[in-house]
Amino acid sequence: MRFFSDNAAPVHPKVWEAMRGADSLDTAYDGDRWSARLDAAFSAVFGRECRAMAVTTGTAANALACAAMAEGHQGILCHEEAHIEMDEAGAPGFYAGGAKLMLLPGAGAKIAPETIAARLDAIRPDVHQVQAAGISITNATEYGLVYSADEVAGIAALAKAGGLKLHMDGARFANAAARLDGDARAVTEGVDLLSFGCVKNGGMSAEALVFFDTDLYAATDYRRKRAGHLLSKGRYLAAQILAMLEDDLWLENARTANAAAAMLGAAAGGRLLYPVEANEIFLKLSAEEAAGLRNRGFDFYDWGPFSEEGGAARLVTSWQHEAADVQPLADAIAAL
Amino acid sequence: MRFFSDNAAPVHPKVWEAMRGADSLDTAYDGDRWSARLDAAFSAVFGRECRAMAVTTGTAANALACAAMAEGHQGILCHEEAHIEMDEAGAPGFYAGGAKLMLLPGAGAKIAPETIAARLDAIRPDVHQVQAAGISITNATEYGLVYSADEVAGIAALAKAGGLKLHMDGARFANAAARLDGDARAVTEGVDLLSFGCVKNGGMSAEALVFFDTDLYAATDYRRKRAGHLLSKGRYLAAQILAMLEDDLWLENARTANAAAAMLGAAAGGRLLYPVEANEIFLKLSAEEAAGLRNRGFDFYDWGPFSEEGGAARLVTSWQHEAADVQPLADAIAAL
Amino acid sequence: MRFFSDNAAPVHPKVWEAMRGADSLDTAYDGDRWSARLDAAFSAVFGRECRAMAVTTGTAANALACAAMAEGHQGILCHEEAHIEMDEAGAPGFYAGGAKLMLLPGAGAKIAPETIAARLDAIRPDVHQVQAAGISITNATEYGLVYSADEVAGIAALAKAGGLKLHMDGARFANAAARLDGDARAVTEGVDLLSFGCVKNGGMSAEALVFFDTDLYAATDYRRKRAGHLLSKGRYLAAQILAMLEDDLWLENARTANAAAAMLGAAAGGRLLYPVEANEIFLKLSAEEAAGLRNRGFDFYDWGPFSEEGGAARLVTSWQHEAADVQPLADAIAAL
Amino acid sequence: MRFFSDNAAPVHPKVWEAMRGADSLDTAYDGDRWSARLDAAFSAVFGRECRAMAVTTGTAANALACAAMAEGHQGILCHEEAHIEMDEAGAPGFYAGGAKLMLLPGAGAKIAPETIAARLDAIRPDVHQVQAAGISITNATEYGLVYSADEVAGIAALAKAGGLKLHMDGARFANAAARLDGDARAVTEGVDLLSFGCVKNGGMSAEALVFFDTDLYAATDYRRKRAGHLLSKGRYLAAQILAMLEDDLWLENARTANAAAAMLGAAAGGRLLYPVEANEIFLKLSAEEAAGLRNRGFDFYDWGPFSEEGGAARLVTSWQHEAADVQPLADAIAAL
Question: Does residue D4 fall inside a structural domain?
Fold first, then answer.
């Protein structure tokens, strides 16, 4: 059983079904019937008017959001271990014309409002220094922690006071929302742009960029095309997203993944590096223990190098991991 | 029956089958078994060693090719009606750091070697003028004309002599190759980069960028990721492409489309604006004739405005258009 | 005597004097007393409130103007022989994030309003095509022609109607203004940004970018710094510009140059390719005639290649060319 | 007496004289006799063949160097308080197509080889992470410390081993060289590109970018023009630089400034935050002490905010500060 990444999971049957349902000749690009339903579907999920566009990767969604927040001579505050900083090959700098990511510390890849405030204060308001125009937070974070609605509100208040836009990288937003009892609205109050992940949660190739600040849509529409992210047959993307939203499949899949992670977290006990709040587990392991687990067929990602003091592993659960599938690994971890 | 665009056609059954065959957990991004087979599959098609990567749009393939050919301070020669100039929202300028497209005339969107030579001669070799670093041609062209192997060789010789890279936009390369008896090798001699289209030819969301100059692959691999075009579940793209290449489905589909276009071209006779060499037909129509055809259920694209002197229409055929499907439209055109 | 370029002339004594006058310790960058006077000085010249910043080249002024008018996914209409297209190494594409220059024809490098209108009409308002956001005209043009106030107003009306910004490249604005009896205000009505040239007109290293649309100043201030065009000792630039504006030195110098050009134009008679309206003369010459003039010590620029049908030369006059200096060349041309 | 910044000092008489000496009509841009002498002049200073180009700001020199080292998808290692990170408005990201500055810690803005090695080791060699292509160090550093020849050699060895280019920001290179007994060659061994500062050292508007890796010159020549940094009358820049190099004026001026700084450093004693090795002094001051010094006519820069625990000031000396000018401030500091 692989716990390497939710990126590696297969496509959910309902997503397949929806794509097949879109398999007739229709208008190209996003002029089709499925794409036309995205705005309403997201507005229903978030309980307020919003707009949405489909792209194929979280990197594209995040980078388009960065371009919507900042011009090239401006900056975006984010965590120093944020995905946009660490794992997207410099995409924000590409899309946003060389805009600077301004890196902030914080345990578990979570940023505290005071950290943001202090950094903003330290920027001299003159042309020699890059001025911040946006903030990007990740929910759930890169270490599987979940910002609560109150925590987001604290950051949103700072953004509003400073005239900055607020973006949420929600590659695993479903897992965060599931943790928050499905309250997608509260945790996005004050957020201007959300990268709404589907691929890690049972989709094939569709992510959504959701605009709570709908004024940002029009220019982004051009930027998406210019970046080569407006697919000729957009209906197959839109259908995937609609399948995720309808009947709350996105939450159902995330709950399954979160439950599996919780089982593993309970088994790991004191080995945990971070509380398990979504679908990622980071735990301390010696090299021998890691090898032992792998010999028994469990696959996962080494988190940093192993040294004499030991090392760590990252396990990620997905919509595929039913309790019965996870129990053997939970038992193996508990028995270490 | 719609003849609006091959972009609008559904997905070929064999492509669906291949995607379903890739629907198991595998390594993310392009570390999977299907992606690993792309290089060999294209090397077999082109009869020489090449490398290939999957992207989701022709715009992405073309723009990555532009970035591989030219730095921001350089230029790329192309036809003034090339897709990269007219219909990609400025993507080449984005990907290639502001590199300039240097526009050339030519009937039917085809560029003659002499036109290229004259333009290169006119560039002063000093720092005030943008120097050309690449040439991009489209085969089949935006007006459905096909460059022969000899014609490409003439341009390739100029490129080589001038130290320029040569890119072929092959959004409809299959249709061109079908016209040329399937000889994919000869028509790409001297070409460094090929955007190999699949989506218009029965694919869902996968295009390939083929590197005959394999040295250009490594940096492009980073640029693809940076542009957000490395999909998490790349195997579903690779599977589509492999399905097209195996058993020559790409040529079979293109032959069907070309045959349908030939039928319509024969029916159009003297109305044709260009010879029909691939799967596009441009014909003169009055506004009344256009309306009449539409009333009978035939859908197509107006090519420019209708005036008192009449107007023109673009019809595009696809892998779906069997002879029996096309006959009614052919008859209707012949009867105008 | 050299008539190669006004770029090559020495620095006017009053400009030297002004620079020496600024040679005491003062606040760095543009925090000094001279820089602080630029806005008022230009507001006086143009009879309305404007802002201004110093840069060191016309290329920088023009490219900053382009960045102020258009985002990377947009376009700027200009003449196909405009300096920004032909001789600035792609600077507009660099500063404006890959924005596209959309090239227009027109005799003498002058653009007619109808040409602009037709091009705007031809752009499909969809995300596949680059939308125009600005217009750039050159006054005096690259062929020494001068747009009148009425001609500029015609273009400005189109810009306003279409929501586009209007930039004037005034590398030789002084020569145009001198032609128009010094009425700097009328000929800039409706213009948003003006590159106000000083270097060709007796300056050493200072050009000004003038903002009639003062809202565009703030972001440009950051972009100037980011481009490395905010000089540490900005006072030496500001002093040059102030020297040009005070006591109308800019107009006086331009009148001298224009008068010299008029003498040469009168001597050239039917050889002229364009009417002489500013300080450039383009005339037909055979290779023998060109060589003959050069043998007599007159230096100038070949305009294109010499062929059997003859060729052409460009002569440019400057503030240095008093009548007595020019008479020998006028005589030599008349005697050809 | 102002100790605010060496940027604010007037122009040295020999620089004025050199500019006046260039005040005759000559070929435009850098085709003149003065520009032609730059390569030889720098080759003499550095004891090996190099090429050089004039620009008007250190920001331009540094940013061009960054563009020469890294493509947009790559990164450049530098200190987290480097001028290119803190005070150039994001210029490196602009010139180098969004390339990332990868920030390193180090006391006194100095980077240790081990810090570089550790950071390079931490970069995963895959397309998800930005790969480093260059290193930029500042000598003298932003806190007035001087890298010795051995220290530079240690970093250069790492750069060479990793296939990275090495840039030295020498805004105050003269002060560093003066500290090192004028040995410009040894301290630049292994360096590929040097921003050679003149403006802070008595120049008006000319800095030089020196290419020890001469292969990097050609593309940079285009990039300089594209950035608007090729001045029409380049001879006035070249003349400034030549004046600095000839008769070792650059070292003479730097020695004067360094001696003044040493006097102030000796007076400051235990208040010093960093050893005084070049021409900058950072010292602890209370708000009252700072006010007291200012009341007596001494001007300087607050280094960070004043709090109950006190604060700090930055004083910078220049070529103008003869011992007699500095003595009063030294006495005042000693008397605090």
Answer: no
Using the beta-carbon criterion (under 8 Å), do D73 and B223 form an inter-chain contact? yes
B197 and B70 together in one domain: yes
| Chain A: closest CA distance from residue C42 (Å) | 22
**DSSP of A193-239, one letter per residue?**
EEEE--GGGT-SS-EEEEESSGGGHHHHHHHHHHTT-S-TBTHHHHH
| Mean pLDDT in residue range B160-176 | 98
Q: Of D210, D226, D247, which marks where a domain is finished?
A: D247
A117 burial type by CB count under 10 A (0-12 exposed, 13-18 middle, 19+ buried): middle
Is D222 close to B127, i.e. CB distance below 8 A? yes
| Alpha carbon distances (Å) from C78 to B102, C112, C138 | 15, 11, 9
Of C223, C247, C271, which residue is a domain's last?
C247
Give the closest-approach CA distance of C110 to chain B in angstroms: 20
Task: Tell me what pLDDT residue A12 has.
Answer: 97
H or E element, residue C311: strand C311-316
Q: Which of B29, B57, B230 sits opposite A231 (nearest CB)?
A: B57
The whole-angstrom separation of Cα C299 and Cα C288 is 14
* Beta-carbon contacts of residue D114 (< 8 Å; ≥ 6 apart): none
Smallest Cα distance from A76 to chain D, Å: 12
CA pair distance A77, A35, nearest whole angstrom: 32
Which residue type sits at A228? G
- The terminus-to-terminus CA distance of chain A in angstroms comes to 18
Mean per-residue pLDDT of chain B: 96
Q: What pLDDT is attached to residue A328?
A: 95
Backbone angles phi, psi at A140, to 5 degrees: -65, 155
CA gap A100, D94 in Å, rounded:
10
**CB–CB contact A57 B231 (8 Å):** yes
Tell me which amino acid residue B77 is: L
Query: In this predicted model, what pLDDT tens digit does every residue of A30-89 receive, in sequence order?
Result: 999 999 999 999 999 999 999 999 999 999 999 999 999 999 999 999 999 999 999 999
Chain C residue with minimal CA distance to A223?
Answer: C73
Q: Which residues of C touch B87 (CB under 8 A)?
A: 128-129
DSSP, collapsed to helix, strand or coil, labels residue A145 as: coil
Q: Are residues B165 and B308 both part of a single domain?
A: no
User: In chain D, which residues have their Cβ closer than 8 Å to the Cβ of B225?
Assistant: 127-128
pLDDT of residue D3: 85
Number of domains in chain D: 2
The reply to whether D172 and D261 lie within a common domain is: no
Q: Could you tell me the CATH number of the domain that includes residue B277?
A: 3.90.1150.10
Per the CB < 8 Å rule, is A25 touching B16?
Answer: no
Return the number of CB contacts < 8 Å for A and D. Answer: 60
Say if residue A27's pLDDT is above 90.
no
Are C72 and A97 inside 8 Å of each other by CB? yes
**Does C78 share its domain with C224?**
yes
Those chains having 3 or more beta-carbon pairs within 8 angstroms of chain B are A, C, D
Q: Do D225 and C2 touch (CB under 8 A)?
A: no
- Tell me if chain D has a CB within 8 Å of the CB of A93: yes
**Hey, is the C-beta of B160 within 8 angstroms of any chain A C-beta?**
no
Domain co-membership, D179 together with D297: no
C299 and C160 in a common domain: no
CA–CA min distance A77, chain C (Å): 18
Looking at the structure, tell me whether residues C187 and C277 fall in a common domain: no
Residues A304 and A86: their CA atoms lie apart, in Å, by 14
As for the ipTM of the complex, it is 0.97
User: In which domain, by residue range, is D186 found?
Assistant: 11-247
Q: Is B218 at the interface with chain D, CB within 8 A?
A: no
Q: Which two tokens stand for residue C231?
A: 């000089």
Alpha-carbon gap: B282 to the closest alpha carbon of chain C (Å): 19
Q: Which segments of A28-172 does DSSP mark as H helices, in order?
A: 38-46, 58-69, 83-86, 91-95, 113-122, 149-162
